[in-house]
Design goal:
Blueprint lengths: L1 H27 L12 E8 L6 E7 L8 E2 L2 E2 L1 E5 L2
Antiparallel strand pairs: 1-2, 1-5, 3-4
Length: 83
């Protein structure tokens, strides 16, 4: 029974070390370069018209931080980035 406990402890330690190293490796990788100009980027942003209440969800844009669209001849307000 004592040998079984030792083997389980060694296996658990191995799994924890592998997970910890993979997490550290993920933190150490540099941020990828932004795509070239003119290429569409994925975004998840919601906008709302203050006049009529229409809501728009933007999913792709040429910029990471796009300008708000216009509705009812006014710029729409940013609701919140959608997670």
């Amino acid at each position: 029974m004592n040998v079984f406990n030792v083997l389980v402890a060694i296996g658990a330690a191995y799994v924890m070390i592998r997970i910890g190293l993979s997490m550290l490796r993920g933190l150490a990788t540099p941020i990828p370069e932004p795509p070239p100009a003119g290429e569409l980027r994925k975004v998840k942003i919601g906008f709302r018209c203050t006049i009529c209440g229409t809501e728009v969800r933007m999913t792709i844009s040429p910029d990471q931080d796009p300008a708000p669209p216009r509705h009812c001849l006014e710029d729409m307000d940013l609701v919140a980035p959608i997670e």
